[in-house]
Amino acid sequence: MQSEDILMCPGPNDMSDRVIRAMMRPAAAPATEEFQELYERTLDMLAQIYQTTGEVVPIPGSGRSGLEAAISSVVEPGDRTLTISNGHFGGVAMHIINGVGGKPEALQEPWGSVIDMDAFATKLASGSYKLVTLVHNETSSGAVYQAEEIARLAHEHGALFLLDAVSSLAGADLRTDEWDIDLVVSCNHKAIGAPIGHAHVVVGERAWQVMEQRSTPCGTVFGNLMTWKSQVDPSANSGRTKKRTYGVFPAVHLFYAMHEAFTAVLEEGLAPRFARHLLNAEAFREGVFGLGLRPLAHPDVASPTVTCVQLPEGITSSEFLYHFRHDHGLFTLPGLGDFQDTAVRIGHMGVTATPRNILHTLHAFDHILYRLGHLHDRGAGIARAEEIYQAAEQAAPVTV
Predict the structure, then answer these.
(1) Closest CA to 135 of 119, 124, 150
(2) In DSSP terms, which residues pair with 333 in a beta bridge?
(3) b or e along 73-98 (b: 16 or more beta carbons within 10 Å of the residue's beta carbon)?
(4) Quick one: 25 exposed, middle or buried, by C-beta within 10 A (0-12, 13-18, 19+)?
């Protein structure tokens, strides 16, 4: 009997049973007081995960829906923007900016490399930019980037800063308020571990002010963040002074799932959760090294949620992924761009960031490489990963 695939991809991610069960409820009208209270509590929890006291706007759709809403709400025709483009998904922001009439420019960096901060500062000083964008965790390369210094420099030059955190939220440390980020975009179906169907955007005060001071109307209603901004409501429950508005009817059952997923994240605790992702990412990368392979990203920016593994010469991603799924019940995606045929991307995020899944995946790598004629030290991948887990276990504090 064929079992369901384990999703070891950079998104969507597997969901826990408790999240799936949370959706098994009768239909409900969003207008009820009960749902409005759940809606508010759910977004309050999401703000904790973003580490912000700012407003979180839910946008039905995928991560790109949130990215388009954030960009189209602040960028007007003719506005210059600057994107640090060090992977495939930086280009997505530029495509959206171009679509709303902005003038996107890029600081091109090699995929998976460390950002050249001097080059960024020089580029930023060379022009008047309204918005700077960065992908926090670039799934095309498996690299994560710290945003605090980028935000500081952007603000020094009068620009807003937008962080695409689609594949990092709840898997990598994201300090929205401490890093002073104006717009942060993420979604349900990556490290959060909820169903596809919702993006969310954190909006800071600078960004609200820019929206309020637009000289031209926003070209969309559904994606206009001002449509979703909370309003003063003295009758709001639980001591709140504002009530969140609906741009469209919220997806009720997705909110049931989101509430359960966010509850699980906060029950685990952000710091332990980030540590779990870092540990399992390290174990996987060390296992990859043990098999004689190399991740694409520089070690200094190695992602806690995604690793892009370069395959040996002569093995294509398509033949590797066929065996990965059909022989081992694991599903993931090939590389992107120049690496589409020569690399595969492994997601270790949310419920799949566990030793069971990491060791299963490394065993599959070992077996497939052997089957396709690659000479390597068989078993070395799992052995290296187990050394990482053992060292972490020995270093853990003893509780009585």
Answers:
(1) 150
(2) 345
(3) bbbbeebbbbbbbbbbbbbbbbebbe
(4) exposed
The secondary structure of 161-222 as a DSSP string is EEEE-TTTTTTS---TTTTT-SEEEEESTTTT---SEEEEEEE-HHHHHHHHT-SS--S-ST
HSE at residue 297, side-chain half, CA atoms within 13 A, is 31
In CATH, what class is 18-267? alpha beta
Amino acid in the structure at residue 130: K
Tokens 């003719």 identify what position? 78
Domain ranges of the chain: 6-11+269-395, 18-267
Q: Which run of H or E residues covers position 135?
A: strand 131-135
Contact 178, 206 (CB under 8 A): no
CB-based contact 77:127 (threshold 8 Å): no
The answer to whether 107 touches 154, Cβ cutoff 8 Å, is no
pLDDT at site 1? 35
Residue 4: C-alpha distances to residues 300, 331, 350 (Å): 35, 10, 18
pLDDT tens column, 247-257: 788 899 999 99
Report the candidate in 318, 310, 293, 307 with the shortest Cα–Cα distance to residue 375: 293
In CATH terms, the superfamily for domain 6-11+269-395 is Aspartate Aminotransferase, domain 1 (3.90.1150.10)
Quote the CA–CA distance of 346 and 384 in Å, as a whole number: 17
Neighbouring C-beta atoms of residue 125, cutoff 10 Å: 10
User: 183-208 burial, b for 16+ CB within 10 Å, e for fewer?
Assistant: bbbbbbbbbbbbbebbbbbbbbebbb
SS3 279: helix
What's the pLDDT tens digit per position in 114-162? 999 999 999 999 989 999 999 999 999 999 998 999 999 999 999 999 9
Tokens standing for 283?
């174990």
